[in-house]
Amino acid sequence: MPAPFPPLSPVPPPDELLTARRRFFSGAPGAEQALALPIIRSWTRCAERGLPVGGRLKAEPLTQGELSVRRERYEALRRRCRPELEALHLSASAAGGIVILTDPTGLVLDTVGSADFADRAAQVALRPGVSWSEADSGTNAIGTALIERRGIEVRGAEHYAEPHGILTCAAAPIHDPFGELVGLLDLSGPSAVPHLHALALVELAVGQVEHRLFEGAFPGRDVVRFHADPSFLGTAREGVLVFEDHRLVAANRPGLALLGLGWDALGARRFSELFEGSLGRPGDARRARTPNGAVMLRLERQSPTPVRAAPAPVAAPAPAVAPAGPSFDAETEQALGRAIRLMNAGVPVLIQGETGSGKEVFARQIHARGPRAAGTFAAVNCAALPEGLIESELFGYEDGAFTGARRAGFKGLFREADGGVLFLDEIGDMPLGLQSRLLRVLQEREVTPLGGGKAVKVDFALVCASHRDLKMLVEHGSFRADLYFRIAQYTVTLPPLRSLADREALVERLWREMAGPGPDAPRLSPDCREVLARHTWPGNFRQLTGVLKVLLALAEPGETVGPEALPADVRTTDLRATDLRSPAQPPAASMLPASQAADPAPGLSGDLGSVTRAAMDAALKDCDGNISRAARRLGIHRSTLHRHLASRGH
Questions:
Q1: Helix %, strand %, coil % of the chain (to 5)
Q2: Residue 615 in domain
Q3: Residue 482 is part of which domain span?
Q4: Nearest to residue 461, comparing CAs of 311, 268, 244, 587?
Q5: Does 519 lie in the same domain as 453?
Q6: Tell me: the pLDDT tens digits for 596-645?
Q7: pTM listed for this prediction
Q8: Contacts with 85 (C-beta within 8 Å, 6 or more apart), sequence order
Q9: Choosing a second label site near 605 at 20 to 30 A (CA), which of 224, 364, 413, 640?
């Protein structure tokens, strides 16, 4: 079998960049003509520090204990960023790259994405526990973005150190409501595979993180949300200002930009200087004038003391009318209603579906539409966390339970979900040893944290999800049968996007919801809608909404977006990819012990196991043994293919 990847080596840069490097490092004038200003400023800083150009820079990684301490210090940031890491994960994997979260100094805290590229990136120390500040690693997207305090893209030989020319990276810093840097998101990949929209995706993700930092963070204070276009209220593009006694004390970047202000306005400006009229009462929404024009303004006052709701009675019926939220087709809505009623009766719910098919969205609606909506929705992705961290995430720990444990301990998600809903995503990737502990919690309804301590009673509703066939995992001995029958008493199967009949109407509806009403809202051309509807979408709804967000971010007001704006892989849809997938299945919900086996794929016969193995073999053959490409074609994780090969003796 041929090697999946050739050796990683720098891509020869354009002649202009080679000339610019030669001029800069020889002291000749004219280098700045081929370089963006942030790059030339960074090269100058690196040269002044005396950093080496040709050799490897010193990158001493933290020990595992030191990294655990650093991760604990930024645990709140890691939780806030987890949805964005997951959303960027698909884009990174498709481009053969990784998503990176760093602390405000540039130290890498977490990485997710292509395992192949992660291994190759380790050649230049791009891994957790290593500092990628500019002072340590020279010009790079992470360190340079932190110094420039803005989104930066550094491609190939734009890196100061020659060994880093194998990378193309896009990074954007995360600011808290007071203007302080609290971290950074980065999307890195091989320089041979340019990601055209990487920086736009990262900046969108950072905007979402910064928007959520205001949730419940300012009890008793007045929060003003505003925008010139009312359709942007409630989105990450709205302006958010926080006032205490009518004085501005916190803000987000869109809010300051809409008013033409900088961070120095905090503590120096009053409401009357920024808007006409008075603050008004919480809940008020009105037109108001600012020095830069009219806006729609809405006032809210956060509760001065967070109130934790008591658990709702188990037998309480589900509400007849659902609150505003994502819309589903009729069959999925019926399955959602049944899931809510059964959850209220103490029956766990299992959601099955391909990656990106909306399993977490469905789970959040179970929480939002049920009587436990006032409680916490505690979510953990069992596949995204290292095995050593899943147990402490779920069970929590006492002071001194392990090296690097925080002094006050950590209560864990089981106790955090008390009175609410616990969502275990990708439960099929939970280690066997931890499965037995989870089963004991579900049976006894009490949790004992790591490091000992008293067992604590918990009351939560359990929702699990997996893109893997759990019944097959049980048969292969990698998932406990007793746990499976405990969590799969009611199973909902969400359909893949490619199986939906009227995908063009779906694309148009999603676009209208994102772009909003009004004459200035960008539009999709009929050709663009047709291409989007025809694409096979291996990443399902997550991939589609990601592409739509990029189109919206890059579109001008009132513009009609054509197919030429789409990513290359969407414009050149390979319809043959559907031949290697399971056939489209409608939304289905079944009570055990009804069979959940899928029909064989067209052209194949036998049981589900043989159909799956044949599809994997065919994909590997078509991709010349390239595991990552075959996994992307099948819409599965590459580790699944690795296990398949191991079971066949490859």
A1: 40, 15, 40
A2: no
A3: 330-493
A4: 311
A5: no
A6: 333 333 333 334 445 566 667 777 777 777 776 776 666 565 555 665 56
A7: 0.52
A8: 99, 101, 110, 112, 185, 384
A9: 640
